[in-house]
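User: We ran a pulldown and think these components assemble together. Before we commit to crystallization trials, I'd like a predicted model of the whole complex to look at. Sequences follow.
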Amino acid sequence: MTVGIVSYGGYVPRYRITPEVIGAVWGNDGAAMGKGLNIRAKSVPGPDEDVITMSVEAARAAMARVPWVSPKDVGAIYVGSESHPYAVKPSATIVAEAIESSPVMTAADYEFACKAGTAAMQTCMGLTLSNMYKFGMAIGSDTSQGAPGDALEYSASAGAAAFLIGTERPMATINHTVSYTTDTPDFWRREGQRYPSHGGRFTGEPAYFKHVLACAELLSKKAGIKPADYDYAVFHQPNGKFPLRVGKQLGFTDKQIDTGLLVREIGNTYSGAIMVGLCAIFDIAKPGDRIFAVGYGSGAGSDAFDLTVTDEIKNLKKGPRSMDSMVKDGVPLDYATYAKYRGKIVMRGA
Amino acid sequence: MAIPRFWREIPSRYNLYGSKCGHCGTLDFPPRTVCPECGRRSVGKMERVKLGGKGTVVSYSVIHDAPAQYEMMKPYVLAIIEMAEGCRLTSQVIDVDPAAVKIGMPVEAAFRKLGSEGEAGVIHYGYKFRPAG
Ligand SMILES: [Zn+2]
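Assistant: Here's a predicted model for the assembly, 483 residues in total across the polymer chains.
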């Protein structure tokens, strides 16, 4: 039996801020910062948006593409995020209610830095392959924050993607998946802390590159096909430089990576990152296309997937907005408005 | 808003469930338990109807003097929206420049935060509307 992605939905909030605007506030050369990160702008959620609202938007888009799927057959919903609005009270139950899958189903929130969404995908693969549930919904969604002035402020953005996973009529089969996990303290946020901390340069080689490379090599060995045989590749994208560098080391071309590299226009969507990249690929993919995807989450670990797009992609119902249209439909903000929207201004009585 | 009241309203707040009178066919949003036209004749005949989420702006105003909960969003647009099914509701229109809102503008339902009971309280979610693409 094969399992795969039955439908997908992505969401990017409408507001943007550029590295130039952020740099100007902190006395840094924002343009150089943006160039160094290969990020032209990052998405900013509206004042009434959070991980839950973005997850619902993505989940509804996924359901809208497959009207033949009853929401009551979505037996499991997992929301992966490092910025759940509640410390205690699941995001997933609200998503379940909003797509009308509740009450006879299971739901939970996941957290694993930037790879909680792909961890949810693997859980849903197991649950549907074992016939426990007909479909599972795996969501990666984040409204991440960098401390004001910190390097992360130039990249930490917002976005979400939802994948409906199952064995019935997948539009992309998941041929192989493999993970690589170690205890690596490259990035963290303690309970009650508003902003995350990171290990500076320690986040590169021993963290991102080590895990992504090891996991990608394990996947290549399992799949047994060469990088050149893939149509698309997507790697976790904390910035626009790392995925291109890791891709090159593995033998992928910039062209294969281009479609899924949304970080350049919207920043690092954390748990959403490779999933929104995959959404952008699915928007234009054709039956038979092969996709190589490797996520990364600090702390640390990688999940890798080898996918083949099927004929079912042609049967998806038109309607939900494409990633490209959402990425391009940006409204630039000044720093003051951005700070207000992100709750960086302390109000009276707060 | 009190938690029990909001919790009871989740089906209409999240998924736009209204009611239809089985006697005269009148559609109401938010849903009613008795039809105001038919009174007793509608008892036991009220059906639950899910609105499709598409509508048009029939009237609107730009709010500059906002209640505390909406302080961060002002100026914002509050509109009366006629749903494709015929009933009307009042909602905020988001993701739009207030100057660009027009009567007759097509809108679609979105899922947003409606407010919260302070920093530590429960967060309320539900529909708002955005320009339809
Ligand atoms: Zn009536």
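The radius of gyration of chain B is 16 Å. That may be worth checking against your pulldown data before setting up trials.

User: Thanks, that helps.
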